[in-house]
Amino acid sequence: MDAQLRQRIGMALTGAFAGLSFHVLHLVLEREWLAERPAMALAAFAVVFFTALLGMAGPLPLRRAALSAAGLALVVSGLLALASLRFHTAGAVFGSAIPVLAMLVLGFVPLPFLVAAQQSHWRDYPLLFLEAWTIVVRYAAAWLFVGVVWAVIFLSDLLLSMVGVTVIGALVGNPLVAMVITGAMLGLGIAVVDEMADVVSPYLVLRLLRLLLPAVLLVLLVFLAVLPFEGLGKLFGSLSAAATLLTIAAMGATLVTSAIDQSDAEASRSPVIRRAAQAMALLLPAPAVLAAWAVWLRVDQYGWTPDRVFAATVAGLGLGYGALYALAVLRGRGWEARVRQGNITMALALLLVSALLLTPLLDPQRLSAQSQLARLEDGRLSPDVLDLAGLADWGRAGEAALAELEARAAQPGQEALAARLAARAATPLPATGDAETLRRDLAAVMPLRPETATVARDAILASLDTGELADWLTMCRTPLPEGGAGCVLLAGEFWPDTAGEEVIVLLRDAGGYLRSEGFGWQQGLITRRSVTPLSGQMPDPAEAEAMLRAAQAGTAPPMKPAALNALHLGGAELILLP
């Protein structure tokens, strides 16, 4: 067996094992075989480990890639577990995008450094540049191959099913088999792409990106030229405008990097591209400064929130890139080499900031809660605009801030704060807790019609994950305007020709509108079913309230046949919807 075949088999088996591992993890999370926090850390470890392993295998031998990937995964999963301690439940850490983005950065950005450290030197820019882009291209090409494989599988199943052969469909319908096939084909695809490094290389992507540089530069120049005449009112104080500016800055930095390539020998020879790269490098501070100013004005007006902490850190990174790029050009000859070294510096800064966002040193929830208290204390914030909903979502730090506000409200002269907290107390907070607790609490508050439908209720609640259980419980606990739960479960013979009862769950959301969930049983397993009004129009809030009251008032669902006739043609039934 030659080395090429061994590499292909090794990568395919690695991918297959990754698929098997993710299937097992899915079962662990779904069936709660582990406590929530260890299960989340284990899932994070597996995601980072296999992503890094498949990304580095090829440039590194499989065993060395596995050791490096394991060390990286251990660090990232540990940081995520540390960040989850900010909340009572581990899943609550994903209430914002910050942990996910931090994990992506910490899982991908170190890979070129790990490869370079074992092949040459960890600051070897040509190798870092090539490996970074190669990993992106290898993954993109391999996932495209996976998509083609599944297209072939589905078409083969469709063809064979025409002659009564359904073995392929039965196999790939098994989630375990599907995950293993996907992983194996991804590993095999990466191995083959790595063999074809001279053909499937990042140079095509880099050459195409260079062509975009003059166009993006022109757009930025027009923006900066028109901005003084249009004014800054639409720009400052808006996080969406800041996000757009930071995205343009990131795109500009990427295009400059693609133009100067890994060394002077590979850099673009086109005078137009080179001048455009210089101009873009000089202009990068402009969108970064404008974005940072927009974020700061928002913070100065309303205080910190986790989203603003994240936006400020990204703006700071944008300022770093802009300053390094502009200074590199202003210093004259050799600016390309200085930009390349600046990329290494900023990559390390990006890693540091991403890690800090998962530690107590840069805890967005704690900083946000302290900001709200400080602004209330010095009079910049009045009790009527205090972000109580935000504090309730900011984990343990938010809870501590709310407890401090409760103590302050009991003091003389704090009547406005006391009234605001009393109004908040009338509105239930989002439900939290583990799945078992949520199921028990939901069973206690959800009205049943008929009241004997406990078996159906328990089976349905057992099929829901923690997030949906919390969502349902929050809606059920939110009372109707004149009292009563904001939900009801209705069980009955909705399908007379099918054995057993079906269930419709009605839930009233925060806006007063009705949400409906349908459930049936097929071969003893719960299946989701769509629920829709025959009129085609969902009820408005007043109608939703009336429907819930009517459903809760009776002892059984008010059932009668629908006023429809079906057109029977052969073995098919056709209905004309109203």
Automatic annotation (TrEMBL):
Pfam families from the UniProt entry: DUF4153
UniProt xrefs under InterPro entries: DUF4153 (IPR025291)
Residue stretches in coiled coil: none
The UniProt record lists the keyword Isomerase: no
Membrane-spanning residues: 12-29, 41-60, 67-87, 93-115, 127-153, 159-192, 204-229, 235-256, 277-297, 309-330, 342-362
Alphabetized UniProt keyword annotations: Membrane, Transmembrane, Transmembrane helix
The protein's name: DUF4153 domain-containing protein
